[in-house]
């Protein structure tokens, strides 16, 4: 496809962003001067404001509808002629679909073979052999001491489907020994040979247990308190994984630090939700640098980034969003007025920045509780409770 070129060689056509939620990618792209077509499962107000065109992500039974997605991408390609497709979370279970989508648009991300490889426990174990980072014992047979193990889908994201091994694993799931410690996740850019660490953050799970396991992604905050030795060990891990897996673009890893040993839990071979924490770390934003890294260009490693954090707020009960809302500026992923949200579904995301890690987490917790208090009020009083003084909200 021949496209129009802007000064400096940039294609002026939009990029199609596909994933469960592409709000962070879309906002990063817009800040970098790119045009966006968004396809996700939520279509929240922030995504709609960033995108020129929005297309609902085809789902069936809560997972990506393979035939429907291929058809939707084909239709977007014919109608809008995007410069390429950038994918986020949601395609882990169907990596082969990337090859099919690539018939319609260039896919700007790790290829299908890489996305599939990073989900195979035996492959992760092989890549880590002889290095300073371990991988938890993982097997298909149910262990005798099941109380110390988890059941995990082979292809999952955001902690969905992870639960204690009191249940029997399905054919596409494995048992993995549970590691206790502090989350050490990282976001990085890769060019297939080297990695550029953007930052390290601590993740936490949804605070309740309503998903059956209590492992759904609940939020994250970056940490600037790692020692030089810890950072060097992490950089060595990322370089090794990049070389062995051939990773490119924006990627993430999830680890557990048990105080003596760093354990790799998974590689997320695509842009992650933690992009929000680091998007201002590099000029042009991380969507821009995802494209640059895919082309083999890495930036200089950023210095210490400001303290930021976010928490995903889940609905305590079924609710309908009032028609007239003026949301506080510390909320993103804002649901559309009048939309219905099922009990346990995500409502929005609260953000905080500044101070140190503990202060940031306290601010996040206070804002989350303020929002939950508002959600428990009768609908006509919700947003009065939430808004407080400056942001007046009516129902």
Description of the structure:
The protein has 395 residues and is α+β, with helices and mostly antiparallel strands. Helix content is 28%, strand content 26%. The protein has helices at residues 23-31, 45-50, 66-80, 97-101, 112-117, 121-128, 228-245, 275-278, 285-294, 357-376, 379-387, and strands spanning 15-18, 36-40, 53-56, 59-60, 63-64, 84-87, 133-134, 138-139, 149-153, 163-164, 173-177, 182-191, 195-205, 217-222, 248-257, 262-268, 308-314, 319-320, 331-332, 340-341, 346-353. The strands form five sheets. Strands 7-16-15-12-13-14-17-21-19 form a nine-stranded mixed beta sheet. Strands 3-2-1-6 form a four-stranded parallel beta sheet, with helices on both faces. β2 (36-40), α2 and β3 form a beta-alpha-beta unit. It is globular. It starts with 14 loop residues before the first strand and ends in an 8-residue tail after the last helix.
